[in-house]
Amino acid sequence: xxxxxxxxxxxxxxxxxxxxxxxxxxxxxxxxxxxxxxxxxxxxxxxxxxxxxxxxxxxxxxxxxxxxxxxxxxxxxxxxxxxxxxxxxxxxxxxxxxxxxxxxxxxxxxxxxxxxxxxxxxxxxxxxxxxxxxxxxxxxxx
Length: 142
What we know:
It is a single chain. This protein has a single domain (2-137), classed as Histidine kinase-like ATPase, C-terminal domain (Heat Shock Protein 90, 2-Layer Sandwich). Helices cover 34% and strands 30% of the residues. The chain has 4 helices and 5 strands; from the N terminus they run E-H-H-E-E-H-H-E-E. Strands 1-2-3-5-4 form a 5-stranded antiparallel sheet, covered by helices on one side. A hairpin with a 3-residue loop joins strand 4 and strand 5 (129-137). The longest helix is centred in the first third of the chain and has 22 residues, at 34-55.
């Protein structure tokens, strides 16, 4: 089954919960298991948090875009910001690295996304933003 959706929301930290709820609701149509839903929820939470905290430096009047698509048994999730971008993606993906140590961030965002999704692609341009594309094959898909 093919389906797709897109939602845009302000970069308010409270909208992280909204993004998780939307993602889980959209993914539910694929008949995933509870563990798969939890994985998706966690990965989306990390990607949206990164956009808000790192992409927009907690500037609350910017927009985060969440796109999702289903194609057969594969769920694709795209989280995009138009913020500052990432200068060194390889460094940013290293466990425990954070560009905001003063905020006591764990530096595990990308590692968590990679642990819970089958693939994570990060594209970024300084001054223009970051796009994180994650895919997960749903075992229980009808």
